[in-house]
Design brief:
Number of helices: 27
Helix content: 55-70%
Shape: elongated
Strand order of the largest sheet: 3-4-7-8-9-10-13-14
Structural class: alpha/beta
Oligomer: single chain
Length: 656
């Protein structure tokens, strides 16, 4: 459920149904995906959200893959934890959990104010159910924080007894225990609070105290004293703000300023203590402000609902961008080695040459297809001349021209895609671009073997394939040194939201090209024609076969080759749409535009030129062109003009 699908397909539906139902459906879907064999790989493919290695953070012998974590109140079971672990989070917090179950009676969302309202009590299924249904059976790869709570009205004595229940029920491998102080603790005396923390310190677990952003100064000071005295691992600013008029807890954008103020207070009093903050983080800029103010880790909750499941990824990439700006100088950015050794080690150049070769081949093939249509070796294989083919069926040569022009146009598009992915992507250390070029190139070469299905080995096709294979191998054995993905996107701007629709459209185009290509490959190696083809030529496959038994294999070669080229282009477009859309990456927009034009112009142009204008036959091309045009329009501002950049005099992370 990446942002491009969440905002365009799912969120419009989820925001129209009750909050509890929306939460249940969403978590059920995430849980199902997490429990499927290969579900994690699907998430990786769709979202590409894993944090870069440079974002690792260590504290108290715990390694966090990134500084962004999932706040409590989101995950529902072990399977959903497995899925959320692929969303770019550096830690996962589950709970709150109490010894006895507490029913949730109120859960509402306000999408305009970006706020969640819920009960001012720790609603959960109880400790026994939590251990059985929500807690993983073994230690998780990502640090797991378990939040426990004592309901309002619990005495200090009862809370201390419950601590023992938690100690025996929770696994020893728990990375840290988060004590939710919102409910019972503010009612106790200072002596009772100290006695409780004395018992907490004996649990032999890393302890984090969770404090609400609206806690009063006296209670805050008690927690600061407890952290220092008992050497607790850290303190977490989380839990929302209590609305005195409704008695509900409010989570969302309106709580951010209180979180920021509380962070300043705690950091001044506890300069060396681990601090987690995150209430009110809706956009990447919010997280960077907290990091700039002094938080060590970010815990997001309401932002997942309003900004989407890709928020952690966006924060990670914005943080990487801030780090890159700090450590790089212009000379380091612009320096490009051109020694022979450097060039030979530049595998991106191999893929770029494959693309350049396909562009030259495609342009040459279009020239032939629009003039002589067939080459001498075609005539030799068929045993028929061009004039004889025209005599057999007046529409045969136009049909062959239509096949070869569309095939060549798709090949030219592939060449442009490979060239751009290599030069603008792989050369700059973008691992996704390297993988996109490698996978699509690999399929393109493998599709050459389709000739086994129609028994016609095109000499020119074979020559070009053999000529380009060494460059493909060069690109594969010399992969680029992957660099962390960076993004300048800080805000949930209108341009960002529109780009998600554009991104969704290009995902659809990529998937559609793959499906269409596979279908055409199947047709090319079996029936060769579709009904519209035969209607255009006013003949049957049997009639053509009666004229010459080599005619169908020659036609099938073009058809299957076109199908294979469509799949090749589809893989590049799909992976670019899934992994490459980032603010300011204008080359993505221009690549999609320039690479798409040869395919659409050749396909639609040749059909109208020869009069093959069947609406049903061209309907997929019409739909794809509309999606292509709309996708470019909607994504232009985000990709090309970097809208929504912070314009304040003191931008976030200025003191990094």
């Amino acid at each position: 459920m990446p942002d491009w699908s969440y905002h365009t397909l799912f969120k419009p539906f989820l925001m129209r149904i009750p909050a509890k139902t929306a939460k249940r459906l969403t978590l059920a879907a995430v849980s199902m995906l997490g429990s499927l064999p290969g579900g994690g790989k699907i998430i990786d493919l769709m979202g590409h959200m894993r944090p870069a290695a440079e974002l690792k953070f260590a504290a108290h012998n715990i390694d966090f893959p990134s500084r962004v974590g999932l706040g409590s109140g989101i995950s529902s079971d072990a399977a959903s934890l497995n899925a959320f672990g692929r969303f770019g989070f550096g830690f996962l917090e589950i709970g709150p959990v109490t010894v006895e179950p507490i029913e949730e009676t109120k859960l509402e969302r306000d999408f305009e104010k970006e706020a969640i309202s819920r009960d001012d009590r720790p609603a959960n299924s109880g400790l026994d159910s939590f251990v059985k249904n929500e807690l993983p059976s073994s230690k998780t790869a990502i640090p797991l924080l378990i939040r426990i709570a004592h309901p309002t009205g619990s005495s200090c004595e009862k809370a201390c007894i419950e601590l023992e229940r938690f100690r025996t029920a929770l696994p020893e491998w728990t990375h840290a225990l988060v004590i939710d102080t919102r409910f019972a603790l503010p009612e106790w005396s200072e002596a009772e609070t100290k006695n409780y923390f004395q018992n907490v310190s004996q649990l032999n677990m890393p302890i984090i105290l969770a404090i609400a952003p609206d806690s009063n100064a006296e209670f805050v000071q008690q927690l600061i004293t407890a952290v220092a005295e008992f050497k607790f691992m850290g303190i977490s600013i989380s839990g929302g703000i209590r609305d005195s008029s409704t008695g509900l807890r409010i989570f969302g954008r309106s709580t951010f300023d209180s979180t920021l103020a509380m962070l300043r207070t705690l950091r001044n009093s506890l300069p060396e203590t681990l601090i987690i903050a995150g209430d009110g983080v809706i956009e990447p800029v919010d997280a960077l402000k907290l990091l700039d103010t002094g938080t060590d880790l970010i815990s997001i909750y309401s932002g997942i609902v309003f900004s989407g499941p890709g928020l952690a990824k966006r924060i990670n990439e914005s943080y990487s961008n801030a780090l890159a700006q700090r450590r790089q100088t212009p000379s380091e950015i612009d320096r490009s080695p051109y020694s022979i050794r450097s060039v030979l080690n530049s595998g991106w150049l191999g893929f770029a040459l494959v693309g350049f070769g396909l562009m030259i081949t495609g342009a040459s093939a279009i020239t032939v297809a629009l003039t002589t249509v067939i080459l001498p070796y075609d005539e030799k294989f068929l045993g028929l001349t061009r004039d004889t083919l025209a005599h057999l069926n007046p529409q045969l040569l136009p049909f062959l021209s239509h096949d070869r022009v569309t095939y060549a146009g798709a090949g030219t598009s592939c060449g442009l895609l490979f060239l751009a992915l290599s030069y603008f992507g792989s050369r700059r250390g973008m691992d996704w671009a390297f993988k996109a070029a490698r996978l699509s190139c690999a399929f393109g070469f493998i599709s050459f073997l389709l000739f086994l299905g129609f028994r016609y080995l095109d000499p020119l096709h074979a020559f070009v394939t053999l000529l380009l294979v060494p460059f493909f191998v060069w690109g594969c054995v010399k992969p680029p040194q992957a660099k962390p993905m960076c993004s300048s996107n800080l805000h949930n701007s209108a341009a960002w939201k529109k780009s998600l629709i554009g991104q969704c459209l290009f995902v659809g185009i990529g998937a559609g090209l793959i499906l269409a290509g596979l279908t055409i490959c199947k047709v090319g190696t079996s029936t060769v024609f579709v009904n519209e083809d035969l209607m255009f030529m006013n003949t049957t496959a049997e009639t053509l076969l009666c004229h010459n038994d080599h005619l169908l294999p020659a036609i099938a070669h073009d058809r299957a080759g076109f199908g294979g080229t469509l799949v090749t282009a589809g893989i590049s477009v799909l992976l670019t749409a899934l992994h490459g859309f980032r603010q300011g990456e204008g080359w993505i927009w221009w690549m999609l535009l320039i690479a798409g034009l040869p395919g659409f112009v050749s396909t639609l142009g040749i059909h109208f030129a020869i009069g093959y204008t069947s609406f049903i036959h061209l309907l997929p091309a019409y739909i794809a062109f509309i999606m292509f045009s709309c996708g470019l329009v909607l994504s232009y501002s985000y990709l090309c003009t970097e809208p929504g950049a912070d314009t304040s005099s003191n931008p976030p992370f200025s003191t990094l």
